[in-house]
Amino acid sequence: MSSGQLLFFLCSVAITVTSCGNKAPGKTLQYQNSTLYYTANVSKGEAEQLGNFLNDEGFFSMEENEVLIDKENDTYYFKVVVDGEAIDDPNFINLAEAFGRRLSEMVFNNAPVDFYICKDDFKVRHVVEFTPAESIIEQQSDEPL
User: Fold this and answer.
1) Contacts of range 43-52, beta carbons closer than 8 Å, 24 or more positions apart
2) Radius of gyration of the chain from Cα atoms?
3) Of 46, 90, 141, 145, which sits with the fewest C-beta atoms within 10 Å of its C-beta?
């Protein structure tokens, strides 16, 4: 699946949401009709870099989206409010893992990015922990032919 297809799928299933109001921590950046929240653990520059990437990739161009970026030690936490059945869809969870790797490579200088699939108000439903691409290649090479 190409990066464009991945992004389109994530956008199309993730995101018709209602406003989180004051329940999301931190500061905000607006992109069209979408909001990127960021905590005190993330610099404004890092948040802007993420927001610009998501905007350039078309993530913010569809419907209203709400995302949150946080950081603890060297790991970023990318949280997305997901609506509907996608919240438990195994295919969506697999795509979230791939998107976390893409954010790591393209935005956060290869730092780990865990992808949080959330309900309204950023209540966590699933955590997709970061898996480096090298680990996936190693796992695949260990499988019998």
Assistant:
1) 46/71, 46/108, 49/107, 50/78, 50/103, 50/107, 50/108
2) 15
3) 145
The pLDDT confidence band at residue 16, using thresholds 50, 70 and 90, is very low
How large is the average pLDDT for residues 81-105? Answer: 87
pLDDT at 63: 75
Contact between 5 and 17 under an 8 Å Cβ cutoff? The reply is no
The DSSP annotation for 53-111 comes to HHHHTTTTSSS--EEEEEEETTEEEEEEE--GGGGG-HHHHHHHHHHHHHHHHHTSTT-
C-alpha distance from residue 60 to each of 7, 45, 79, 131 (Å): 10, 18, 14, 25
Determine contact, residues 75/130, Cβ cutoff 8 Å.
yes
